[in-house]
Design brief:
The complex is a heterodimer of chains A (338) and B (337). With 338 residues, chain A is of the alpha/beta class. Chain A has twelve helices and twelve strands. In chain A, helix 4 crosses helix 5 and helix 5 crosses helix 7. Chain A is globular. Chain A starts with 9 loop residues before the first strand and ends in a 15-residue tail after the last strand. Chain B is α/β, with parallel strands linked by helices and 337 residues long. Chain B has eleven helices and twelve strands. In chain B, helix 3 crosses helix 4 and helix 5 packs parallel to helix 6. Chain B is globular. Classes of the chains: A alpha/beta (338), B alpha/beta (337). Chains A and B meet through helix 7, helix 8, helix 9, helix 10 and helix 11 of A and helix 6, helix 7, helix 9 and helix 10 of B.
Chain lengths: 338, 337
């Protein structure tokens, strides 16, 4: 795996992003101040449960959410110096698909069933790169070959339903990579796939990363997938980043009680088998208002008074390791029951 | 953290068999054209045999489309099976129909994958859970309400929620309602069809613990269908692996995970990501090429031969027999020994 040096240029800088949804039943605070920095050639994993705001963060930074009901109330997003949130729609369209590629969870619903896949791969090539039909076709064949689809030239005329789930996801990846994007956002790209196909796709992304050197954001709820491919991991809960560390640190020394609990609840494939699974009691928060206390407080095993009064900010505990928690695994904070 | 102490009772060789499946086949016809002529069959389940012992959890794993759900539903006689026999508690239920089948239904129940789709949104929790009681005239009036409260309590929900509707609950809670409904008639055997697949990681553990508690308390027997191999390792006593309508390997949990015999089982286990970057970096994966073949037109010989990394000529020609290895484990592979 390529090591990403601190000197690699930053391609994507997100700071203090907040997104809310205006619904009939009130406001939903889906993203409550997320910051994210991505370097070229780096793979950042974002882990969280459903409703933790991981997908909404990614949709917000490309302004893919319909407004209203969604509203981005604060924050900045810079793609190599370009302010995405203040870009006019026409220019933004030039960025989407060209500079930023997107892979969605469900390859069935994200491909258009009435166009053949050749057309769907060639569309961004002709739109963004201005290639003529013959050149776009040649490039499309090259892309399908890159993502491992056998006899690509014969398959350009096929429709999405003629491909299996794993093959469709490969087509999605080919489309996302078509214009050589600087940033690739993969939103649960393997969740809908079987494990053997998931292994194929992960292997493919690993190889492509080495070849193409783009920054990748990989959203998932599966801590196992992230362990194998990411350089850094951000754990999200209740619309906030609660822990951020290099992949080795996060798994070796998780500090946030939520991360620790998540890792403990997972049954393992080898080693000793626990008699009983540890579980996190309770439910995720409702997010009907901006967090004034720690969003995890209600389910946390180490909760104390301060957690219910003040929302902990993301603070650096060691190089490259940030945690938003008043509790520390090393010491018992003053004034709390041990 | 306590480790598994002694082998569980159901693992004993002479354990009592509750459900016995013999050469079960479930083929679905494919029709085409104006006159709906039959042009072929999908062999969703093709000649599978195994026993489920009383009190055990048999894990049934495989990729989507391998026939594991069809197998579960056939065993419950939700289909009229194409061939083979199903013995439930010593009684042949393969050909039962009408009232006789209805009589046996209370003893075998099902928990479904999608807690959203399997609960009627227009019924209250209480009427959902009471429906099997009404259907089988098991309880009426105050006794029925009492039973509903008992069941809600058993699955860890507040009995005061009985008059609410499914949409008022989260996924994990809805799954608990589905479990309460399955328990209503005191079944012996429950088919759990991917009961945790639609739930978040932190909620999965809650539901699995509940299923285990109920098993201990009520002496239930589970067929646990799942594609999550790590969870199956946690919950199952024995595990059957299915591929394209066939059971390719059946072994006790520890044997299967520590020493898989079938190349498909090996590939499946190696494909599961492990939440530990050090192990992940050092691991060499068996990456299977291609996809699962079409079950309407399965390959000749061994069904796995098209993707098998170690297939020989024989595998393409001769179908491997379902042979028994030492220790009572079974595998369908020419090369395994």
């Amino acid at each position: 795996m390529p090591t990403v040096s601190e000197k690699s240029p930053l391609v994507l800088e997100v700071d203090g992003l907040k997104t809310i949804f205006h619904t009939r039943d009130g406001t939903i605070h889906a993203v409550n101040g997320v910051s994210l920095h991505l370097r070229a050639g780096e793979l950042v994993g974002i882990v969280g449960e459903s409703g933790s705001g991981k997908s909404v963060t990614m949709m917000s930074l490309m302004k893919l959410l319909p407004e209203p009901p969604a509203e981005i109330i604060s924050g900045t997003v810079f793609l190599e110096g370009l302010d995405l949130l203040r870009l006019d729609p026409a220019k933004l369209r030039k960025v989407r698909g060209a500079e930023i590629g997107f892979i969605f969870q469900d390859p069935m619903t994200s491909l258009n069933p009435v166009f053949n896949i050749g057309f769907q791969i060639m569309e961004p090539l002709r739109e963004h790169l201005g290639l003529n039909k013959a050149a776009a076709q040649a490039r499309a064949i090259e892309l399908l070959e890159l993502v491992g689809i056998p006899s690509p030239a014969d398959r350009l005329g096929d429709y999405p339903h003629q491909f299996s789930g794993g093959m469709r996801q490969r087509v999605m990846i080919a489309i996302a990579l078509a214009c050589d994007p600087k940033v690739l956002i993969a939103d649960e790209p393997t969740t809908a796939l079987d494990v053997t196909i998931q292994a194929q796709i992960i292997e493919l992304v690993k190889n492509l990363r080495q070849e193409l050197g783009m920054g990748i954001i990989w959203i998932t709820h599966d801590l196992g997938v992230i362990a194998g491919i990411a350089d850094r991991v951000m754990v999200m809960y209740g619309g906030l980043v609660v822990e951020h560390a290099s992949v080795a640190d996060l798994y070796a020394q998780p500090r946030h009680p939520y991360t620790r609990a998540l890792l403990e609840t997972l049954p393992s494939l080898d080693g000793t088998r626990t008699r009983r699974l540890l579980s996190i009691s309770g439910q995720p928060p409702h997010m009907t208002e901006a967090p004034t206390s720690c969003p995890f407080a209600a389910r946390c095993a180490h909760v104390h008074d301060r957690c219910r009064a003040e929302n902990p900010p993301l603070a650096t505990v060691s190089t490259g390791h940030e945690v938003a928690c008043w509790w520390s695994p090393d010491q018992v904070p003053p004034g709390s029951p041990s | 953290m306590t480790t598994e102490a002694a082998a569980l009772d159901p693992l004993a060789e002479d354990a009592e068999v509750l459900v016995s499946v013999e050469n079960l086949c479930m083929h679905f016809p494919i029709f085409k054209g104006v006159i709906r002529r039959q042009i072929g069959v999908i062999k969703a389940v093709d000649d599978i045999s195994f026993d489920i012992r009383r009190g055990e959890t048999l894990g049934l794993v495989g990729e989507s489309g391998c026939g594991k759900t069809t197998a579960g539903r056939s065993i419950l006689r939700l289909y009229d099976v194409t061939g083979g026999r199903i013995l439930f508690d010593g009684r042949d239920i393969t050909a039962l129909s009408g009232e006789q089948l209805r009589r046996i239904r209370p003893r075998m129940q099902m928990i479904f994958q999608d807690p959203q789709a399997s609960l009627n949104p227009r019924m209250t929790v209480s009427s959902i859970i009471a429906e099997p009681l009404d259907e089988h005239h098991a309880a009426t009036g105050e006794a029925k309400q009492q039973r509903v409260r008992e069941l809600l309590d058993a699955v860890g929900m507040n009995p005061r929620f009985a008059n609410r509707y499914p949409h008022e609950f989260s996924g994990g809670q809805r799954q608990r309602i589905g479990i309460a409904r399955a328990l209503a008639l005191n079944p012996d055997f429950i088919v759990c069809d991917e009961p945790i697949a639609a739930l978040d990681v932190s909620i999965q553990a809650q539901v699995v613990n509940l299923l285990e508690d109920l098993q201990d308390k009520l002496g239930l027997t589970y067929l646990f269908i799942s594609h999550d191999l790590s969870m199956v390792r946690h919950i199952a006593d024995r595990v059957a692996v299915m591929y394209l309508g066939k059971v390719v390997e059946l072994a006790s949990r520890d044997e299967l995970y520590s020493d898989p015999k079938h190349p498909y089982t090996k590939a499946l286990l190696s494909a599961v990501p492990i939440p530990n970057p050090k192990i992940e970096a050092a691991r060499s994966r068996i990456i299977l090429t291609g996809d699962v073949p079409n079950p309407a037109n399965p390959p000749s010989g061994c069904r796995f031969c098209t993707r098998c990394p170690v297939a020989e000529e024989k595998c393409h020609l001769v179908e491997p027999e379902w042979k028994e290895l030492a220790g009572g484990r079974r595998v369908a592979c020419h090369l395994a020994s």
